[in-house]
Amino acid sequence: MIAAPEIPTDFTLLQESETHFSSDTDFEDIEGKNQKQGKGKTCKKGKKGPAEKGKSGNGGGKPGGPNRMNGHHQQNGVENMMLFEVVKMGKSAMQSVVDDWIESYKHDRDIALLDLINFFIQCSGCKGVVTAEMFRHMQNSEIIRKMTEEFDEDSGDYPLTMAGPQWKKFKSSFCEFIGVLVRQCQYSIIYDEYMMDTVISLLTGLSDSQVRAFRHTSTLAAMKLMTALVNVALNLSINMDNTQRQYEAERNKIIGKRANDRLELLLQKRKELQENQDEIENMMNAIFKGVFVHRYRDAIAEIRAICIEEIGIWMKMYSDAFLNDSYLKYVGWTMHDKQGEVRLKCLTALQGLYYNKELNSKLELFTSRFKDRIVSMTLDKEYDVAVQAIKLLTLVLQSSEEVLTAEDCENVYHLVYSAHRPVAVAAGEFLYKKLFSRRDPEDDGILKRRGRQSPNANLVKTLVFFFLESELHEHAAYLVDSMWDCATDLLKDWECMNSLLLEEPLNGEEPLTDRQESALIEIMLCTIRQAAECHPPVGRGTGKRVLTAKEKKTQLDDRTKITELFAVALPQLLAKYSVDAEKVTNLLQLPQYFDLEIYTTGRLEKHLDALLRQIRDIVEKHTDIDVLEACSKTYHALCNEEFTIFNRVDIARSQLIDELADKFNRLLEDFLQEGEEPDEDDAYQVLSTLKRITAFHNAHDLSRWDLFGCNYKLLKTGIENGDMPEQIVIHALQCTHYVILWQLAKITESSSTKEDLLRLKKQMRVFCQICQHYLTNVNTAVKEQAFTILCDVLMIFSHQIMTGGRDMLEPLVYTPDSSLQSELLSFILDHVFIDQDDDNNSADGQQDDEASKIEALHKRRNLLAAFCKLIVYTVVEMNTAADIFKQYMKYYNDYGDIIKETMSKTRQIDKIQCAKTLILSLQQLFNEMIQENGYNFDRSSPTFSGIKELARRFALTFGLDQLKTREAIAMLHKDGIEFAFKEPNPQGESHPPLNLAFLDILSEFSSKLLRQDKRTVYVYLEKFMTFQMSLRREDVWLPLMSYRNSLLAGGDDDTMSVISGISSRGSTVRNKKTKPATGKRKVPEAEESSSSDSMWMNREQTMHTPVMMQTPQLTSTIMREPKRLRPEENYMGVYPMQPEHHQAPLDYKQQEEAARQQQERAAMNYVKLRTNLQHAIRRGTSLMEDDEEPIVEDVMMSSEGRIEDLNEGMDFDTMDIDLPPSKNRRERTELKPDFFDPASIMDESVG
Question: What is the pTM of this model?
Answer without folding.
Answer: 0.72
